[in-house]
Amino acid sequence: MKLNWKPKKLTLVIIPDANQSVVRFRIPHLFAYIAAACLSVLLLISIITYVMHASTLKKASALQSKLTGANQQWSAALNSKDKAIEQLQNEVIQLSQQAEQMKTQVEEMKKFESDLKSIAGIDANTTGTAVASTSSSTQDKPADADGKLPTLDSGIGGSPNPASQEDIIKLGEQTLASFTALNSEVKELQTNLTATKQKVADKQQLLRITPTLWPTTTKVVTSTFGYRTDPFTHRPSFHSGIDFGARENDPVYATADGKVVSTGSDMFHGNNIVIEHSKGLRTWYMHLNKILVNKGDSVEKGSSIGLVGSTGRSTGPHLHYEVLKNGESIDPKPYLKANRKDE
Ligand SMILES: [Zn+2]
């Protein structure tokens, strides 16, 4: 292309080939300016478009990488949350197992309380529900042919059967219900145990002040309570106590906690001790060789209070032992139930 500048018009000459004729276009001068201006505008628009496109591409690339980063973060967060959910689900299962173990322990404690009452001789009516529930829990466990419960081992197996989310939610609800029920059962058990503790303490106190102990080591009864032939006069007479055969200077024990209300000696009873217990009960120990306590002493059940002898109206070493209720001699035999702790 060749521009031929003239005052008013421009000639555009096109030479296609050496053997072909030249083509000439005459265009107005103004038109050339307008064309040049249009080309400049187009060029400018192209440059601006290119710059904007390049900027957009850069932004898109930055957004893309940002999106990729965010996506990775979300993936990591989702993965972490999945793991957390799995861990929580496993914890729900563990809690469920713990609830079952606690149920067993609570049943065992109920049984323990029931046994405690039974041992202490306390009315077991109040533990009826505990015994019933204990028996039902043991019935749940399968027994073998001998009726024995199977022993536990460490083997675990079975086909894979993944728990669904609904299963876990249901298990969680059941576990919560189990813990709620256990909570009220434990509270009830606490109340019952407190009452049982008090009853056992009362029973122990009553036992301490009731003359249930044998007063001699030998436990040989040579004469029972009631009518007999008097060993001196050989005439029918009433024997108001029990005679225990023993060697001289064998220990004589207080048969219950109490207070020594008298010690003395006379021709019939010999050296003798009277101990007051409670509920109008007194015990009387006669024919002692030696008295080891003083009037006013507090004595404990099973403590040594004197030595066997044959003082007073006696044919040989023995202990005449009497139990008095409101001043009346009663048969001591029904009271003689307990052994000393050191026996
Ligand atoms: Zn006697």
TrEMBL record:
Residues 71-115, 179-206 form a coiled coil. SUPFAM superfamilies: Duplicated hybrid motif. Keywords: Coiled coil, Membrane, Transmembrane, Transmembrane helix. The chain crosses the membrane at residues 30-51. Residues 238-332 form the M23ase beta-sheet core domain. Residues 130-163 are annotated as: Disordered. InterPro entries: Cell_wall_metabolism_enzyme, Dup_hybrid_motif, M23ase_b-sheet_dom. This is Peptidoglycan DD-metalloendopeptidase family protein. It comes from Paenibacillus phytorum.
